[in-house]
């Protein structure tokens, strides 16, 4: 088991090393100090001579022992550590804050200090008080990077962040989500230029005062991206919808129109104690005003992707994530009219009946296999109806997510909307993304969606005569520009979204290298398409496809 663990550790260390080296190069840092105060082995691939391994108790007492000022600091910190009883530091239960302060005192005037921290550093009251204290000392946060979810796998389920401080006032914060394949040079250049790329995977510039977590940012982006649905509902904090929010150490008395919201973990919200999976003391019991909202509607909302994410954003991330009542009652939720709430509830009842019917069919098949033809006919009929729904949901989900390594939007396939004329480069722009998806890990291309604001404009802008001719034209372009042998890896459908039509193109990874016009080789990065040539092309093909 040691082999995979070592490889995994090296992969994580390599990511940190690339982040540090990219920032060092872009900011032309003349001096740097790499400090490890943990035994997590996260700096294993750094040059040993560049890393200072110290005991955090000693560092609390002494700080950086020399008087040198550094242009770049990187510190791997322990979290939630307590100082000794006789310690005089202000943050006795978060002594890592004192470690940050002592480190920053060795930062040069133009320097950048980087620290590996839990996400609670962005929103907890103690962390906020500490950041205010640092501002009085002349330091403010300028960047926050969200590291991969599995970065501390085996140590904690908490997803860590890297925060950066500078000796100046920053009212804006550069935030980005990083994975092991991220083009870090692009991140760093955007950060230095304070360039808002419009995408969390390549970097956003946000107001420092309004940014509380990556999860909250994703929620807001998803809400903003919806062209229908929750975006047009009125929104209210839970405290405006509830009569009371209760906690207990024993048992609740069941009340009408009330919702059980878990304090810890990812258990679902419930409207009855009969369905509750946790003990009473592990729930908030929210008694709702029936004139404003139905508990059943909020249960459905919190089971949606958006609702689950909003509850996740409330979690105070320590080694055991939990939610606070003071944050819960301020949580904003979308509330449609009571008529629409009832429609949503009734629809959910029908979906539950459908699930039960499917379960009955499975049971019938196992008990009476001679009825398999009849059961198959029922299943095929249901699947034909569901397929129409699923394609629509695929489109809407991709729009909610926004452009990523696996998702790309194009407004048209042929027409330049600025001139209204058919242009060769417009089609090639779409096709090169298909080639890139085939050469990487697959992906989804939506034609008929603007990439700037995710507005559904529809393929009608391509001035086509009918769906069949449009689909045939697309197929012919694939045949002539990419090749017939790649048909098995590409599926396309025209999907109706209200009064617009979108071309949904789904690609899976090809088993051989794919070229545009038998010449140009593209791969997908976050969330861009890059052309590879020369040694990089040879190395990529050998790595991803084997030597061809």
Summarize the helices and strands and which ones pair or pack.
Blueprint: H1 2-26, E1 32-36, E2 51-53, H2 56-62, E3 70-76, H3 96-104, E4 107-117, H4 125-136, E5 140-146, E6 161-166, E7 172-177, H5 184-193, E8 204-207, H6 214-225, E9 234-237, H7 238-241, E10 242-246, E11 258-262, E12 283-288, H8 295-303, H9 305-314, H10 325-328, E13 332-335, H11 338-367, H12 372-401, E14 407-410, E15 415-416, E16 421-422, H13 424-439, E17 443-447, H14 467-481, E18 490-497, E19 500-507, E20 521-524, E21 529-532, H15 534-544
Parallel strand pairs: 1-2, 1-3, 3-4, 5-7, 14-17
Antiparallel strand pairs: 4-6, 5-6, 7-8, 9-13, 10-12, 11-12, 15-16, 17-19, 18-19, 20-21
Helix pairs in contact: 1-5, 6-9, 8-9
Concise synopsis of the structure shown:
The chain is α/β, with parallel strands linked by helices.
Please describe the biggest sheet, giving its number of strands, its sense, and whether it closes into a barrel: 8 strands, mixed
Which percent range describes the beta-strand content? 15-25%
- Strand arrangement within the widest β-sheet reads 2-1-3-4-6-5-7-8
**CATH topology grouping of the largest domain:** Rossmann fold
Distance between the termini: 33 Å
Task: Give helix % range.
Answer: 25-40%
> What's the helix count?
15
CATH class of the largest domain: Alpha Beta
Mean pLDDT: 87
Number of domains: 4
- Uncertain parts: 1-7
Q: Which radius of gyration do the C-alpha atoms yield?
A: 27 Å
């Amino acid at each position: 088991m040691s082999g995979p663990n070592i490889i995994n550790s090296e992969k994580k260390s390599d990511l940190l090393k690339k982040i540090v080296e990219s920032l060092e190069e872009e900011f032309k840092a003349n001096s740097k100090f790499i400090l490890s105060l943990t035994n997590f082995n996260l700096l294993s691939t750094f040059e040993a001579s560049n890393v200072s391994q110290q005991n955090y108790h000693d560092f609390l007492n002494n700080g950086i022992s020399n008087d040198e000022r550094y242009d770049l600091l990187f510190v791997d910190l322990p979290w939630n550590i307590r100082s000794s009883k006789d310690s005089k530091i202000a943050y006795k239960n978060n002594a890592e804050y004192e470690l940050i302060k002592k480190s920053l005192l060795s930062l040069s005037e133009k320097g950048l200090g980087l620290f590996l921290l839990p996400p609670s550093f962005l929103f907890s009251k103690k962390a906020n008080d500490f950041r205010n204290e640092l501002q009085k000392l002349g330091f403010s946060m300028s960047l926050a990077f969200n590291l991969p979810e599995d970065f501390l796998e085996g140590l904690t389920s908490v997803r860590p962040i890297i925060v950066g401080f500078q000796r100046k006032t920053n009212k804006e914060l550069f935030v980005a989500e990083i994975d092991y394949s991220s083009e870090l040079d692009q991140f760093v250049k955007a950060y230095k230029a304070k360039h808002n790329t419009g995408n969390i995977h390549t970097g956003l510039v946000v107001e420092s005062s309004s940014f509380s977590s990556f999860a909250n940012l994703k929620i807001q982006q998803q809400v903003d991206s919806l062209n229908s649905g929750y975006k047009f509902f009125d929104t209210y904090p839970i405290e405006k919808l509830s009569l009371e929010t209760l906690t207990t150490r024993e048992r609740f008395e069941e009340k009408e129109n009330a919702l059980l919201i878990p304090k810890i973990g990812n258990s679902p919200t419930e409207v009855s104690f009969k369905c509750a999976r946790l003990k009473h003391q592990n729930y908030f019991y929210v008694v709702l005003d029936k004139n404003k909202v139905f508990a059943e509607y909020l249960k459905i909302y919190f089971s949606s992707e958006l609702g689950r994410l909003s509850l996740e954003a409330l979690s105070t991330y320590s080694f055991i994530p939990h939610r606070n009542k003071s944050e819960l009652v301020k949580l904003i939720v979308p509330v449609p009219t009571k008529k629409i709430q009832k429609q949503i509830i009734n629809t959910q009842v029908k979906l539950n009946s459908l699930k039960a019917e499917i379960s009955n069919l499975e049971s019938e098949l196992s008990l009476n296999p001679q009825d398999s033809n009849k059961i198959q006919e029922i299943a095929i009929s249901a699947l034909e109806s569901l397929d129409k729904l699923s394609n629509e949901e695929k489109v809407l989900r991709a729009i909610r997510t926004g452009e990523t390594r696996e998702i790309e939007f194009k407004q048209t396939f042929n027409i330049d909307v600025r001139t209204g004329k058919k242009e060769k480069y417009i089609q090639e722009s779409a096709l090169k993304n298909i080639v890139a998806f085939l050469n990487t890990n697959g992906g989804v291309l939506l034609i008929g969606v603007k990439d700037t604001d995710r507005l559904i404009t529809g393929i009608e802008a391509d001035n086509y005569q009918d769906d069949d001719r449009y689909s045939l034209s697309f197929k012919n372009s694939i045949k002539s520009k990419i090749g017939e042998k790649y048909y098995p890896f590409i599926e396309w459908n025209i999907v109706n979204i209200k009064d617009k039509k979108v071309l949904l193109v789904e690609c899976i990874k090809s088993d051989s290298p794919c070229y545009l016009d038998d010449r140009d080789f593209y791969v997908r990065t976050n969330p861009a398409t890059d052309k590879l040539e020369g040694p990089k092309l040879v190395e990529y093909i050998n790595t991803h496809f084997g030597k061809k």
